[in-house]
Amino acid sequence: MSYDRALTVFSPDGHLFQVEYALEAVRKGTCAVGVRGKDVCVLGVEKKSVLKLQDPRTIRKIAMLDDHVCMAAAGLTADARVLIDKARVECQSHRLNVEDAVSIEYITRHIATIQQKYTQRGGVRPFGISTLIIGFDSDKVPKLYQTDPSGIYAAWKANAVGRSSKTVREFLEQNYKDDMSRDDSIKLTIKSLLEVVQTGAKNIEIAVMDINGIKFLESSEVEAVTAIIEAENAAEAEKKAKKGPSASS
Asked: 16 - beta bridge partners?
């Protein structure tokens, strides 16, 4: 059927299948998680294993758009690179014209508008990525936004995109607390990623942003937090095991 192949043709039940296929490409991408704390924002991504002869410094899943804006994406990495370049140009253009930095909502809306434009024209295909955008405006309040291939965007306290994002989102809903500290936000981000990342800390990348800027955690720091989480999980499992026999007796 033409509506299954053409981007600009609706199906009889009101679907744009190419957009839905783009969302499926996002679901097949590696997981990305964003958490908003009291005075900090954290992005965590699942990294694919680096090949033996590959330079790991050239593989980045988290990118800076401006000094105060950071983005992670799930889906087709090449599509993400193009969208990042467009967003960076807009950030610099805004500084040049307005003599002020973009707000987080402004650049999120700009990215979502580009994604939406690619759902409404013939001869193109939608961007096969969902993005998580974090940053600080002049009010010094942390912001977290998410966009998807259809051009929808929304603000979140915590969210996940990519592979098994539904499982991770449910975990975040159960464990998220308002006004979390820096350490608690990092811990929750890593803990939620460990729900889907089987290989542990070595395949997790964490970026932490506060009003002073952004910091990418070293592998050793991620491993240290992972060790604490694993110890807590082991202690909890042991406590449950002890409760089990007494409850049955």
From this structure: none
Q: Which residue has the tokens 């506060």?
A: 210
* Torsional class of 159: left (φ above 0), alpha (ψ -120 to 50), beta (otherwise): beta
Give tens-digit pLDDT for 155-207: 999 999 999 999 999 999 999 999 999 999 999 999 999 988 877 788 899 99
CA distance 76 to 139: 34
Helix axes 77-98, 104-117, angle to 10 degrees: 130
Instruction: Give tens-digit pLDDT for 74-120.
Output: 999 999 999 999 999 999 999 999 999 999 999 999 999 999 999 98
DSSP state of 198: T
Residue 7 and residue 18 in contact, taking contact as beta carbons nearer than 8 Å: yes
| Residue 84 contacts residue 71 (beta carbons within 8 Å) | yes
Rounded Cα distance between 242 and 55, Å, is 47
Nearest CA among 166, 168, 153 for reference residue 33:
168
Cα dist from 155 to 35, 44, 109, 135, 162, whole Å? 11, 17, 11, 12, 17
E strand or H helix at 63: strand 62-66
Please give the single-letter amino acid code of residue 140. K
Between 8 and 24, the higher pLDDT residue: 24
Query: Counting Cβ atoms within 10 Å, is residue 53 exposed (0-12), middle (13-18) or buried (19+)?
Result: exposed
CA-CA distances (angstroms) from residue 122 to 13, 34, 167?
Answer: 20, 33, 35
DSSP state of 209: E
